[in-house]
Design goal:
The protein has 22 helices and 6 strands. The chain has 509 residues and is an alpha/beta fold. Among the domains are: 196 residues, HAD superfamily/HAD-like (Rossmann fold); 154 residues, Tetracycline Repressor, domain 2. Strands 3-2-1-4-5-6 form a 6-stranded parallel sheet, with helices on both faces. β5, α9 and β6 form a beta-alpha-beta unit. It is elongated, with a radius of gyration of 28 Å. 42% of the residues are buried.
């Protein structure tokens, strides 16, 4: 059990001084008197649980494999981990390593102490991490038969190094049995309850990394929900406003709240499915799940709770709204699991998800949707979805890459995507122009001629969004860009002002 390592993998992603040390690793015999440092993997060396990460990667790559998991559980903990490792392992190159533990290892190596990676994770997963870092004298993990966790790990380390013959860095209550046998217990983000139990033991304690407080954890969960994205759900109010029906706004507000919670649950699931892809991105790597701020298991519970709350709020509106909400959730999950990897289909799906918000607003308020509104929304949201992909591709060009990770595009596709942005955007303005000329507008607006002024504003805005994306200056999400962009806000304000004027200002003499 266990393997020795002497050279780091390329681009380890660790601090520079540790790279220097890892290049000159010399295995040390513990019998020379140096007390070995034992480092746990999950939650300690890395912020995450590699088994959970592997499971998410497995399900993301092939959702049907989820049905195999109950059968694997009959193999026991070690056997289950081995079966998962047969299929997939968390990529060590993208894991979020703790800088404090990396520095601890660096100090130990400078002191001439041997350092071991000992984990309950499957041996192959442990081997991959150890080979990637190249700073461990040996790496030991579960072998498919024996789960090297808690008491089994304590017995292994005592048999090898003796009672109080090692220092151990761990993170949870599962490490208490090991700390009890160690010379020094080094805690990494351990809970208050675990620390209270640890302090009852006759062992030296070093608190290396404090556990984030409740406020920090709450902020991380709120950030993962992406509340700024709820602005997209303002589309739910469009049918009531377009129909000049203020009495329907209360129902639209309930629908807005329900849809916002449902959308946040989808963002959580999508981030869990995109862990490795997000970690390769210069900005998305800071998202809570990618950065390891929130455990994968917490994210699943959080997402489920949001869906339940969304359905409960939706039940206060109409059955039709609940049906639309169900379609939205089904389509978003299909997007997260499969459709986002398909060329152009992903763009059409994103556009459909925008339009579904308008349909949801109509379903909640009982307002009939016109074919004009559906046609306009289909084209304008297709344009925005293409802007999102265009910005991603131009960002890849800046980073010297030619292919998207987890998507089906090449940077050579940029002209095609740019064409989709402009064609769909201009088509939406054409639909708006035809709508302004229709009899519906003449009946609803005092001065429908004013609405023509919105068309050149939208033509300018769409052209500008396309140009900014083509130059690589667009935010990852065009909606986020628009709400922060002064020019976009000015265009929206003027368009809204024109619509209001067309409603209340009579024809010019």
């Amino acid at each position: 059990m266990g393997h020795k390592y002497s050279k780091p993998d390329a681009e380890t992603g660790v601090s520079e001084h540790l790279k220097d040390i890892s290049e000159n690793v010399v295995p040390i015999n513990p019998g020379q008197g140096a007390v070995p440092l034992i480092v746990d993997l999950d939650g300690t060396l890395v912020c995450v649980d590699t088994l959970h990460e592997s499971l998410m990667s497995l399900i993301s790559g092939n959702p049907l494999r989820a049905f195999s998991l109950p059968g694997w559980l009959r193999c026991g903990k070690a056997g289950f981990k081995a079966r998962v490792a047969d299929e997939v392992q968390a990529d060590a190159r993208s894991l979020p390593f703790r800088a404090e533990v990396i520095d601890l290892i660096a100090r130990a190596r400078k002191q001439g102490r041997p350092v071991f990676l000992v984990s309950a994770a499957d041996q192959r997963q442990v081997d991959q991490v150890a080979a990637h870092l190249g700073v461990f004298d040996e790496a030991i993990g579960s072998d498919g038969r024996r789960n090297l966790g808690e008491r089994a790990k304590a017995e292994y380390l005592v048999d090898r190094f003796g009672v109080a013959g090692f220092d151990y860095a761990g993170d949870s209550a599962a490490d208490l049995a090991v700390w009890q046998q160690a010379r020094c217990a080094i805690t990494v983000a351990a809970s208050d309850q675990t620390l209270r139990q640890l302090r009852k033991m006759d062992v030296q304690i070093e608190e290396l990394v404090p556990k984030p407080g409740p406020v920090e954890r709450l902020r991380a969960h709120i950030k993962a929900m992406r509340p700024h994205q709820w602005l997209k759900n303002l589309l739910i109010f469009v049918p009531a406003l377009a129909a000049h029906n203020p009495a329907a706004l209360s129902a639209a507000l309930l629908a807005f709240m329900s849809f916002s919670l449902a959308a946040s649950s989808v963002y959580l699931i999508n981030d869990l499915m995109d862990l490795e892809v997000d970690r390769q991105h210069p900005r998305k790597c800071k998202r809570p799940f990618a950065a390891g701020t929130i455990p994968v298991s917490h994210g699943l519970v959080h997402a489920a709770a949001l869906i339940v709350a969304a359905v409960a709020l939706g039940a206060l509106t109409t059955p039709a709204f609940l049906a639309v909400l169900g379609v939205y959730l089904a389509l978003t999950f299909a997007y997260s699991l499969y459709l986002k990897r398909k060329q152009m289909i992903d763009i059409w799906t994103l556009a459909a998800l925008y339009t579904i918000r308008i349909v949801a607003g109509a379903a909640a308020t009982g307002v009939m949707l016109s074919e004009w509104m559906l046609g306009f929304s289909m084209f304008v949201f297709l344009s925005l979805a293409a802007v999102k992909r265009l910005s991603e591709l131009t960002d890849l060009v800046k980073r010297g890459k030619d292919k998207t990770a987890g998507r089906g595009y090449l940077t050579s596709d940029i002209p095609v995507i740019l064409g989709a942005v402009l064609a769909a955007g201009y088509s939406s303005v054409l639909v708006l122009a035809l709508y302004v000329s229709s009899e519906n507008v003449a009946r609803m607006y005092s001065n429908p001629t004013l609405l023509w002024l919105i068309c050149p504003l939208l033509l300018y805005w769409i052209s500008r969004m396309a140009m900014i994306s083509y130059r690589g200056e667009m935010h990852d999400d065009p909606i986020v860009f628009a709400i922060k962009d002064r020019v976009s806000l000015a265009v929206f304000a003027m368009s809204g002002g024109i619509a209001v004027a067309g409603t209340f200002v009579g024809p010019f003499a």
